[in-house]
Description:
By secondary structure, the protein is of the alpha+beta class. It is 37% helix and 21% strand. The protein has 7 helices and 11 strands. The protein has helices spanning 2-13, 35-49, 81-98, 143-162, 195-206, 209-212, 269-296, and strands spanning 22-24, 57-62, 69-75, 105-108, 112-117, 130-135, 169-175, 183-189, 219-222, 226-231, 262-267. The strands form 2 sheets. The chain has a 6-stranded antiparallel beta sheet, covered by helices on one side. Strands 1-4-5-3-2 form a 5-stranded antiparallel beta sheet. Helix 1 runs antiparallel to helix 7, helix 2 (35-49) packs antiparallel against helix 3 (81-98) and helix 4 packs antiparallel against helix 5. The chain starts with a helix and ends with a helix. Residues 1-16, 244-262 and 283-297 have low confidence and may be disordered. It binds 2-acetamido-2-deoxy-beta-D-glucopyranose (4 copies). One 2-acetamido-2-deoxy-beta-D-glucopyranose binds next to loops. It holds the Pfam family Stress-antifung. InterPro entries: GNK2, GNK2_sf. The chain crosses the membrane at residues 263-288. Keywords: Membrane, Repeat, Signal, Transmembrane, Transmembrane helix. This is Gnk2-homologous domain-containing protein.
Amino acid sequence: MEATCLFIAQAIIAQPNFENSFVCLNKGNYTSNSTYKANLNHLLSTLTSNTEIDYGFYNSSYGQDPDKVYAIGLCRGDVKPDECRSCLYDNTKLLTQDCPNQKEAMKQDEYCILRYSFRNIFGIMEDEPFYALHNRNDQSGNLETYNQDLWTLLDGLRNQAAAGGSLRKFAEVKSTGINFKTQYALVQCTPDLSQTDCSDCLLSAFGLIPLCCDGKIGAVIFTPSCNFRYEKYPFFGPVADIAPPSTNTSAAKGNDGNKSQTVIIVGSIIAFVVVVVLIIISCIYLRVRKPREKPEM
Ligand SMILES: *[C@@H]1O[C@H](CO)[C@@H](O)[C@H](O)[C@H]1NC(C)=O
Ligand SMILES: *[C@@H]1O[C@H](CO)[C@@H](O)[C@H](O)[C@H]1NC(C)=O
Ligand SMILES: *[C@@H]1O[C@H](CO)[C@@H](O)[C@H](O)[C@H]1NC(C)=O
Ligand SMILES: *[C@@H]1O[C@H](CO)[C@@H](O)[C@H](O)[C@H]1NC(C)=O
């Protein structure tokens, strides 16, 4: 019985890889010959061919209600414009395959995020659903100190990113804290959010760490409006210039070798908590029930 509880708990979080990091929101379907589909295709192709935007944020809509489509593309702050476009291009292909006929969907990749919907998603803070991956390795040493140091680090980045302008809300740091040795971290919001909304979104996302990634040496958590990541190894390059274009292009990009060390968690905060609580309750119940049966007999 206890083994069953353990199995359920593991089944929820066992599903490796960045490549599967898409969420089909299941808020409605379009048919393959619909106006919505034509609008979506048009929008996504103009989005990924826009060469004027050099700050890594794309927000555009296309069509007339009820077939109007809204899309957001967001690249990590250290990703250069051409890489950004190609990341978004790849993800438009993947997302329309992964979530066929879905009116609302999002894909979170290492370098870029793509969302589209039938409703206006611009300037609106959304911290659900979340998508999390974490490193399998645990932090050694005093966990409480580690968590405190991590919080301090992330919180500093939160303030910095939230204070960014309407073109970019991004901050990254390499920290050499006492307990950390070295920790690399970045945080990001879609820049159409207000400073307060960005700050709130990140706070809410940091609050997921205990649910998914407690004590892990690295993790990445995405919500529709904001995301953050921390690792022991360098996974980002220098923040890309907005304009003029950067002359130095050498960037320490993410280490593919670490992909296999991740575990994925998808869900809404509430659903996740409910499931965990149900498992805990059923496990406690089973544990409690067993010993009782004997004395009664
Ligand atoms: C959309 O289509 C999928 C797959 O065919 C189906 O499972 C889902 O229930 C549909 N969603 C809505 C909102 O109709
Ligand atoms: C789409 O296809 C269906 C049948 O597959 C048809 O009934 C419908 O009229 C078509 N709609 C348009 C806008 O062409
Ligand atoms: C798109 O984003 C830019 C930059 O954040 C912002 O200035 C603009 O108002 C946004 N457009 C819409 C339609 O939300
Ligand atoms: C570019 O980066 C490399 C390695 O990071 C460094 O050696 C070089 O000096 C940099 N060049 C400029 C122009 O900043």
